[in-house]
Every structure is written in C-alpha cells, then in structure tokens.
C-alpha cells in the first residue's frame, strides 16, 4: 500500500487544533492541489474565500451552529459555486440551470477533497463545515458574494490536537453495484448498526448509544434547510 492510499484510508475529521500556524508554503501547496482537481468541461466554477479576519471567523462560527473550531483553526476556507466570472466575461451566460448548480457543487467537492488530502499528507488535519448553510444568506452577506456565486461549505485546517478513532463506513458490497442496482439486504444494515453502536459506545469522546440507522432516519425525517432553494434562486442559480 502506497503513502497516498494510506493517507486516504487514515482520514479522520479533526475538530481540535494546536495554535501553530500553517506555513504559507503549505497553504500554497494545498490550494494548488485543489486547483489541480477535475473540472467539468473545464468550466472552473469554484471560488475559495480564505477567511483570516478574526471577527468574521467568530461570526461564521456562530452562523455554522456555534462550531468553535471554525474560529480556532489555523485556516478556514469557504468553497463557493461561482459563475460570476463567467457572467463578467459575457453577460449573456445562462447560469440559472439546475445542471450548472450541480456542476458547481460537484466540482467544489472534488476541489475541496484534493485540498484536504494534500493537507493530511503533510500531517495536518481538517473538517468540513456544512453548517454554514444553516445561515447561508448571512454568510453570503458577510463574505460579500456577488450574483452568480453562492456559499456551499467551509473547511477548517490546522495542526491536529486530537487523534480520534477512524469511523467505520458501510461495507463496499452495500455501496458498489454491478451492472444494475441491487436491493438492499437489511441484514447488512443490522450488522453495520452493531458495528457503529460499538464504535459510538467505545470511542474516546462524544460517546452515544444510537445506531447508524437511527441517526440517519432521524436526520431525514424532517425538513432539511428548506431555505436553500430560495437562497440559490436569489443568487441567480437553480431557477430551471
């Protein structure tokens, strides 16, 4: 197993960081790794806002659901869909198709994962912050995002001050289908629930007794940020 694969398989979300800064050389490498990511039709529809202003960091931590590590991490990057540069080139660009929003979301995820893997390969750690979408309009205003650009998620980066256990994933045979979609075997989910229940009960922090099925069913049983569609519409996205 090579070092790249080992880095991927060793991924843990890091939410506690030492006060040590990330060097400018490290940050430049992380960003260049992100820029090297695949881009659909080479549209390059992602922008990153690096937030260094401490007051803005504090407010973003609050907007994200009082996640203190947004404020304390060495670096905080916000990934955005961005068609503003294309509209600036040609005002007749039609960026309001849902397909183009999907492209922006997919490309942002690919770019961000490149950034995180690059950071982890240097001994750094990080965590994604989807909670920014809890208050997308406030985040948007704080970062002064133009029309055609919309916030997706943030990323904390820094020197880890914790070493959490690796969280078990669903087994590959549940995720990977061959030639056609296969019906779910609930016995596989029951076994995975037992694995996750043991993991949750025995991990070094934030112990709990719930299963994966209970957690995801609770998450999916109610509204999920219903304000996001009107927010995207207000930015000239996902209108048709």
Automatic annotation (TrEMBL):
InterPro entries per the UniProt record, alphabetical: Flavin_OxRdtase_Frp, Nitroreductase, Nitroreductase-like
Ranges where the Nitroreductase domain occurs: 8-159
Nucleotide-binding found in the keyword field: no
Keyword annotations of the record: Flavoprotein, FMN, NADP, Oxidoreductase
One Pfam family of this chain: Nitroreductase
Domain of life: Bacteria
Family to which the UniProt record says this protein belongs: Belongs to the flavin oxidoreductase frp family.
Name of this protein: Oxygen-insensitive NADPH nitroreductase
Species: Vibrio alfacsensis
